[in-house]
Structures are given as C-alpha cells and as structure tokens.
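S.,

As promised, the succinic acid run. Input:
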Amino acid sequence: MSATNLRIRPAEGGVGAFVEAIELDSLDDDADFATLRQALGNHGVLFFRNQNMTPERFIDVARRFGPINVNRFFARTEGYPEIAEVRKEPHHTDNIGSRWHTDHSYDAVPALGSILLARETPSQGGDTIFANMYGAYNSLSDGLKKTLQALSAVHSSRHVFGREGSVARSTDLQDRIANPDDATQDSVHPVVIRHPISGKKALFINPQFTVRFDGWTEAESAPLIGYLEGHATRPEHVYRFNWQPGSIAFWDNRATWHLAINDYPGERRLMHRITLEGEPIAA
Ligand code: SIN
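Predicted complex:
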C-alpha cells in the first residue's frame, strides 16, 4: 500500500482522526509512516480498528515511528520488555491513568507519544477520553495566552510513582506499577510549546504531572492549573474513544491529554502500550 491510499478521517469531536482500512503491520513504505507521523502531529491522536498483530509485529511497527522508550514504572509484558501492560483485573478497584495527563512530561525530553493496543476489553465501558491541547491554547483569551507564554512549569514523577506518591496510596495499583525509588524525575518545560511536528502552538502542562509554575508555589499554581484543566477538557476539545479488541489509539503527548474511565467493575481490561522517544521541545 502506498501513501496515496491512506484514508485519514477527522474524528467527530474535538481531537483525533481515524485511519481507515489499513493493517498497520502490512504497511512497508517509509512514505506511509512519514504521512502517519505528520497526521499524528496535526490531529493529536490517530485511531485504528482491527489491528490484531502479534507482540513481535507490534514492536516492529512501533519502531517504524522511532526508538522505543521503555517505561520505568509499568509492568512489562512477559518476554517483551518494550511493551508495557495497562491492565485491570476483575478484583482490582483502581485503574491506570484515571486522571487527566500526558505521559512522561516529567522527563527532560518528553516522550513523543504512545501506541495503545487493546487486547481484552470489558463488555461495556473502559473508554479513553482525549483532549486537544492546540484547541485548548487557541481558545484562551489573548491576555491569558500572553501570561502563559512567559511561563515555564515544573513537572515531576515523584508525587505519582514515588514512595509517598498516589500509586503507593492506592489500594491495588502497586500490583501493576513498581520501582518507586526510580521516581526521581523533575523537569522544567515551557507552558506553551511550538509542536515539533506540526509547528502549531500547544498548551504543555497537565493535571497529573505538573506540580507548579516555575517561580510560583504549589498553592499559587493550583488555581490556574485547575482553571486550565476545566478549560482544556470542555466538550468541544475532547473525543471519547470506545475500544474493541484490536483497536489502537496512537497519541502525541505534546498535543493531547488523555484519561482512562474506570467504569467496568468486576471485568478485565488488558492493553499493550509502546511509548516512543520524543525530541526536545521548546516555546
Ligand atoms: C494510559 O494512561 O496510558 C492508559 C490509557 C488507557 O488505558 O486507556
């Protein structure tokens, strides 16, 4: 299949696009991968259906988009350390990713994005909501845009994955997330970035990993971060994706946030996630 045959249809919502009628593991042409990478930067998240590939082929496909970043904290799929498991068993109460976030923003070079492949889905529920950080930025007032453009923010992994973090306080997330002593990452990033693929401006803070604006206290920062959370997740900025086994969402961490809905008690949900290395980000 050549690049000219790729059918990319914007989702009927605030973010994302569906890539229709392709099997990712039969794509071969570098031009197709370049087209998909550009579409990812433009739309923020790409959705695919019916991609029931083996773990080996999943790793091969991911590598066509860039080097793999092995997550420090998530459980790894047996035999495939490149593939993180996002899993909830019937006896679990908490799910992974239940707060608005973008992955790895605490790293000095945040990950490009993640490819999440659904292996087992509950009979109903378990959707993921994505939010558009281009739309969130563009729809702010000129005054607030100007204020935010002058700011940087501190992102950290400590209060989430560390010994005193929210994972450690959960009743059962420790079953699936480990290595609290590795949660030592703190990074400062511009609050408004120029996206490295699309060239568009995007809001780059997130409610989970951003702890404060640089030079501000956490107490001073919390109201503005809270305001931006409400603004960025307004209905016109979001799209809710319903999973089936074999569905893929490939999101760009620099252009979107996501949140996994925990509404399927007593059922299993198993997703395989590969995260890709990003490039340095700047204002
Ligand atoms: C994640 O936050 O990486 C997981 C999202 C999901 O399970 O839908």
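The two ends are 37 Å apart (CA to CA). The longest helix spans residues 218-232.

- D.
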